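Input chain follows. Return structure tokens only.
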Amino acid sequence: MRIKLFAAGLAFLTIAFASCDESTDTIGSSLISNVDNLDVSTDTFNVTSKTIIADSVLSRSIIGYLGRVMDPETGDIITGDVMVQLHAMENYSIISEDSIISRLDGKVIADSCKLSIIYNSFYGDSLSQMKLNVYEMAKPFEEGTEFYSNYDPVKEGYIRVGEGAVNQSRSYTLADNNYTIAERSASSYQPKITINLNDPYTDLQGNTYNNYGTYLLRQYFSNPSNFKNQYLFTHQVIPGFYFKMTGGLGSMAQITTAQLSLWFRVEKNDSILKYVTSFTGTEEVLQTTNFTNDKALLKQMAEDNSCTYLKTPAGLFTEVTLPVDEIMSGHQNDSVNSARIEIPRVNNTYSTNYSFDIPPTILMIPKDSLHSFFAQSKIADYRTSFLASYSSSTNKYVFYNISGLINKMYKSKQNGGENWNKAVLIPVSTEYSTTSSNSSVLSKVTHDMSLTSTKLVGGSLNPDKLKISIVYGKFNGR
């Protein structure tokens, strides 16, 4: 299909599309007044696609995932285990040691200590009986180290083992029945999973305390400077904790932070008061999730040629082969001003109350950039990397203009590049920041680590179902 258009209005519109993919030093020369000399044409081409397995993804989300659920589409069991680090607030301090009356053999102690993991939402059944173990880390994850979703902290020696180390088991349901329904419904209620750390604890130097809170109190009073600096705090006081699922099936919590609290009694103005001090996790300290699932089931889905898949976390991506040669054939002297591609969904054929969400946002990048894009913390520039949002009204994703990617791929072929016509569709999470002029600017793009899944139109059995629409521009006499 090839149509020539000469309407001046359309010509200006086409140039506007092109300017999004040109450097600013060419925009002025593009906007000429003699639009009668502009020849605009369109064409449509087939795009082929297939599913590829994402063995692991860079784990940089500020949200952690803890639980074990069954994928309703495949029966795959997906387990999320999470590692958190804590920090002391700026200018952290504790009341004077002399005022503490909680003591054992004359030394200060904590009366109790609790570690809580706080979540803001969850997938599955809040009444599912789950079980986890919390382990003390033997050493902190160093800042700047990259961790992927399939890392094994136990195998890599990050978990402290042995008598006296933190190793607590906890059964729980996300619907905490220690609170009434009314209390859980209140806006002030903060859902969490709490683990008591009141067993005797032995530190790395062999000193034993009646509980973990007492260890922290004595660490503070012996060397408070370790609580003022994040590096010293994680290396000298609390390296972190690892939460590993050991039983249960049916829920996955989205962990926002962790909090470690300890209680002791103080005497003040002839009164005895109960005092609490806490250490929390924030975006500034590391929180990562590692996932395990059935790779054989993912391989089976990837071999389904009737469609393609997007599945997170660390599941399946869609690879598209763009018909760059066909697009440029006979148009070497033309400008590819617009390249629009629509990716329709295939609706689910199974029925369940616990379907995974549809990925809300997907990223298209060259296949060769699959790892470097995230490792280098890049964001979509709409020249060679593009975002598209799912539309429930049209049931599809639309990339409105990937002409910059087409042009880059054509040059890559001429330079002997590999995978020069391959791009990958990846579910992502995005963050935006507000500028001084109150405008919203894309500031972060990371792998979507939540539970999502969808089928897309395409696959080798449907070579003519996926289309890309091209608008060319050419100045007569050029």
